[in-house]
Hints:
The protein has helices at residues 15-21, 58-70, 100-111, 147-164, 178-188, 209-215, 235-247, 261-271, 281-292, 298-312, 322-332; strands at 31-38, 45-46, 54-56, 75-81, 116-121, 135-137, 143-145, 168-171, 197-202, 251-255, 275-279, 316-319. It has one domain (26-220, 233-332): TIM Barrel, CATH 3.20.20.70. The strands form 2 sheets. Strands 1, 2, 3, 4, 5, 8, 9, 10, 11 and 12 form a 10-stranded mixed sheet that branches. It has a two-stranded antiparallel sheet with strand order 6-7. The radius of gyration is 20 Å and the shape is globular. 46% of the residues are buried. The mean pLDDT is 96. By secondary structure, it is α/β, with parallel strands linked by helices. The protein starts with 14 loop residues before the first helix and ends with a helix. The structure holds ligand PBG. Residues 120, 122, 124, 132, 172, 208, 211-212, 224, 280-281 line the site of ligand PBG.
Amino acid sequence: MAFPQTRMRRLRSSSALRGLLRETEVAPSRLIMPMFISADGPSRVPIEAMPGIERLSIAEAEAEAQELFALGVPGLLLFGVPSQPEKDDCGSAAWDEAGVVQLALSAIKRAVPQMLLITDVCLCEYTSHGHCGVLSVTPSGARQVDNDASVELLARVAVSHARAGADVVAPSDMMDGRVAAIRKALDGAGCEQTPILAYSAKFASAFYGPFREAVGSAPAFGDRRGYQMDPANGCEAVREALLDVEEGADMLMVKPALAYCDLIAAVKRATSMPLAAYNVSGEYAMVKAAAAAGCLDEMETALEILTSLRRAGADVLITYHAKEAARWLAQIV
Ligand code: PBG
């Protein structure tokens, strides 16, 4: 039946009706806050393009974790920022038992035992050349990121994180076969209960700009298009997701989020797996900049974006707005 029998506005006429019939909700329990931790150097280094986000020392990260947990944010995604002299060709500081992430894991676990600690497993923050794996030379003499050699090192990183207390490991490198290799290495190390959150469909995106400033991981030459996905490809994103399921991933991720809602929906539909959306640095920076310029209401815009990601099919929202969103949600309810 169409108009005038059907009037869609009838069910929009009061706040109570709208609340009763709302299909999608964002709760703090869905939020994960990314965190940048440096073992040394000055503390609380602000990241210019990301107002409100800073590089933290381990002690500051503990305090921040406490505050976030009290606001109802259940988890963190940890990124390490090693000092320049620690970086080398193969990113060996990434699996150092006394590396920044490993030390942060045990410190935050001690301070906030119930906080879920997810670690980003990648080499780009730790390699001198800023690529996500180790380099080799092709027969024709070109430099390339060597897939199979990188996978071995990534598995080592994942095991060292799990041993140091990571609750979940999240490989973000986009090498082929890394999920299976990490699963095997974790199981071999007695970490068979540690889940893998695979950055399954991770695109070579301009939206990562502010992040590379935050952790100093911009590649010294070339770009990441030889391993991260082409933003034009949707079917390929679903294939990547299906492969990660086959390799033993426990949760999947689509990244970036806002411009990729179609793929959040497609991956969810194709796999029925628990799914995270990573609302990345550039997406956060855009909202902050527009709000600062008086063009947008920050709270309404940020919550609308997070709601859209949930509506598209994401269970978990990884967002730099996590702390503010938890505060806003507490006010609204
Ligand atoms: C590391 C990594 C990146 C991000 C998460 N893990 C950067 C990149 O791939 O260059 C981006 C996160 C963000 O922009 O918020 N491989």
